Amino acid sequence: MPAEDHPLPSSWRGLGRTLRLGWTASPGLIAVAFATTIAAALPDVLIAAALALLADAVLSGEQVGVIFAAVLLGALAVMSWLLRLLSERANRRFADRTGVFMEAHVVRLQSGLPSLEHHERPSYVDRVQLVRDHADTLSKVYQELFQVVGAVLRLILTMALLMTVHPLLGLLGLFAVPTAAVSHWRGGAEHALEERLGHHERLARHFFLLGTNASPGRELRVARAGERVRRGRHQAWAARHRAMARARWTTTLWQTAALTVFGCAFTGSVAGVALNGGSAAEVVLLLTAGGRLAQYLGQTLSQVHFLRTIWLEGGRRLLWLEELASMAAERSPAPPPERMRSGIALDAVSFTYPGTDRRVLEDVTLHLPAGSVVAVVGENGAGKSTLVKLLAKMYEPDSGRILVDGVPLADMPADAWRERLSGAFQDFARFEYPLRLSIGVGDLAGAGEGGAVDRAVARAGAGALVDRLDRGLDTQLGSAWAGGAELSEGQWQKVALARGYMRDQPLLLLLDEPASALDAETEHLLFERYAERARALKDRGRVTLLVSHRFSTVRTADLVVVMDGARVIEQGTHAELMELGGRYAELYGIQDRAYRVEG
Ligand SMILES: Nc1ncnc2c1ncn2[C@@H]1O[C@H](COP(=O)(O)OP(=O)(O)OP(=O)(O)O)[C@@H](O)[C@H]1O
């Protein structure tokens, strides 16, 4: 579904959801944290009243009154301190627990999304990045919320105290309204800007990784482009910083103006009470409570600001991610077939990457017969890998359908379909685990079965690699780990290929340039062996789709599909396409001659 169809939920729904998550994470602790934070407000405010009592008793010379007021003052100070301490401890423990809970929740949601859109569509990437970055911070906002409630309670009680001096002093609260309004607007405005500037931040991070990782490091040194990358990073940060600083200056100016309005009203009130026959106790009460009014107001505002920026916005995005994940889970009721009979059909499939407007697949109609080995060839950018991604259900076509034995792939749950897929890709992952696990990851459910990993190793022709390692399949991979072995590019790719061969009975095996780092001869031998085996198992109905630029490998396939400019332009067996004398024959001829010359 396109991103525009799934807007951000409202702040209030996000807030409600975050609260419910906090309750789920730890109901007991959230209750204690809330109760102690709120209770701490009462003694705090009453200190102003006790001070007024004390001033009154001192001026009227009542000894008992002085002692009573002093004891009350002491008791209130101790209570206030104790409750603050308890609330801090309860909130900290609660934040620790929810932090872990939230992070796990976000990871689960993200990894559960069937499509890759959240990794590739710029507006989605920025949202997901905010949720990810704020997952831990979200756990701390409960304390902020409780403190906001406590600060609002303090404000109300303080105003009630002030109104005992003169009812008009309650109006002081009105002068606080502009400050609260500015603060509310400020948080939202800054946050929206932060999200809009997300691409600068990503760019800076990208340059940082380029400059600090080993493999780009080699290229950068040879090309002597290190300085350019450093400058790029600096410029990206500077662009973000300039825009943020401008916005912050503007919002701060507005806030200063609003606070000035409140300051003038407070000073006027103190002068008014003092000059119009107010008692010393009333002036003390006004000074203490009124002074605190400004402090409580400041606290409320900074917490509201924090809540507005982090919690409301973070909470909305978390809910958005949850909705995206559940929408994906709700669709698709049809299970994949146990065994494929007719095969996979693409019926007028067209596709445009989210956030772009150029079609990268145009009206593709193909039949991939059950039990066949299909090779896809074409120039760079022709759409071969995109076809593989659609078959792996990483994206849905814009129009047209993919049918598996006549059942729309769109109706099949992504998880269930992927359980029946195997794959090895050009941009393979390097799992720095012990080798056995690094391969076993290809099918964790079956990896424990005796011999499953050994079979995968044999299919990928990786036996020699295993033998060469000191501890065989138990060797830790990756030189960053104690005793870890570093592999060459081709060796890593063999591990990835073995991972792709882990499943015994996949319905579809996707091999997207799985041997690009191996020499042509090894690739040819490997694939020929694989194709023979696949043909022997024809009745299992598996489809194997291989993307390769090497025609020596491609020619062994049962069906060759030639892509050009987002379209399928030719299809048939090697012999048929050679006889046709079209694009395939031309490309084959070029490569064949080149090899002969090299040879
Ligand atoms: N994530 C993406 N977002 C936007 N456009 C993309 C994305 N991935 C690929 N493309 C574009 O889609 C087109 C087809 O890319 P694809 O990777 O499918 O080509 P390919 O035939 O596999 O190329 P190669 O042989 O170089 O691997 C290219 O023009 C590419 O720029």
TrEMBL record:
Chief location: membrane
Alphabetized InterPro entries for the sequence: AAA+_ATPase, ABC1_TM_dom, ABC1_TM_sf, ABC_transporter-like_ATP-bd, P-loop_NTPase, Type_1_exporter
Identification of the protein by name: ABC transporter ATP-binding protein
Positions of the ABC transporter domain: 344-590
ABC transmembrane type-1 domain span: 31-178
Transmembrane segments: 21-54, 66-87, 155-177
One term of GO molecular function: ATP binding
Classification via PROSITE patterns: ABC_TM1F (PS50929), ABC_TRANSPORTER_2 (PS50893)
Keyword Transmembrane helix set for record: yes
Family matches, as SMART domains: AAA (SM00382)
Localization of this protein: Cell membrane
Membrane topology: Multi-pass membrane protein
Keywords: ATP-binding, Membrane, Nucleotide-binding, Transmembrane, Transmembrane helix
